[in-house]
Task: structure prediction
Amino acid sequence: MLQNDLPTPQWQLSERARKLTSSAIRELLKITERPEVISFAGGLPSPAAFPVEEIRTAADRILRDSPTAALQYSATEGYMPLREWVAARHSTPGAPIDPSQVLITTGSQQALELLGKVLIDTGSRVLVETPTYLGALQSFSLYEPEFVSLPTDDHGLVPEALTATLTQGARLLYAQPNFQNPTGRRLPLERRQALAALAMRSSFPVIEDDPYGALCYRGEPLPTLLSMAPQHVVHLGSFSKILAPGLRVGYIIAPAGLHFKLVQAKQATDLHTPSLNQQIVHEVVRNGFLDNHIPKVRSMYRAQCDAMLAALERDMPKSVTWNQPEGGMFIWLQLPPGIDSTELLAAALKENVAFVPGGPFYATPASAADSSRTLRLSFVTVPAEKIAVGIERLGKLLAARL
Result:
């Protein structure tokens, strides 16, 4: 009998494992790998923005000059020169960051998983935006919290709506103030100040997830929540959107007590983020490379964003509305009553166009009341000419349903 003919063992899985679900976006990306599909689905940075030569040069130098340290086990907290760089990058005169507050993670997705592990018990209240990042919902859900969807509008989270009753007993508040995934919203300055003030008087941390903050196309950069309330905000950052996601290097900046527990949790997860990858990142960024590289990425993404906005204006029915992002990677569409974005996706895939329906980004059924009429478009991996073709096809599909 061949090995493949043997019956599959029916082992007992944990209750937690039985409750695991796949990411709707990751499953969709399997379909969009076909070359004929114009995909607005994945929140992937453009490969054209990857600094391949700089990364190759950095890797060559490290493997020539200090290969042993780069290929050996290292400290859980991360490569000290990179931690020092991160701390300096985020320090302000009023809120200096010490390298001891920085934990290097295997992507910012791991940062979310570690925070869930150390902050959430079964039934714990977790406060999230409406809608919110699907990857955060997936990470936190593993620890079986009670999600509380917070009021938002076209400018993001509404701090004055965060009453004591709404936030009572919370373990954390998760937010993306800069060009949020999925909506592309940016939290205005006065709301940042209000949210930082809330953090300083609350018994739970505000988690500031900021993978897109450097990708600002319009307006002035706004201060981080971390700079306003450094002892009450946990800041997550990533090199995925500004260097390359395949390196899987992110970081957490956290106060000392929480930082220590995150380090312990990471020790049990993967010991440390790959030493070679950390050293490559540091070698690339240490002499100011990002000061020239990031403006080039912004310029590229701005052009693609403008191309999509122009195509939407030209080809969408008047009853469809969307935001005008100031940065980031996403445009959020609101469809007219009677049109379901999941059903629209099925029709769009037949026309070789893909997007992400809005439903998976909503944490609770009550918050998802109108989610079937929303969808997310990502523009950064699609050339302008294909953006025009894809949006025209979507516009025709929508017009036929009105």
About this structure: The chain has a mean pLDDT of 94.
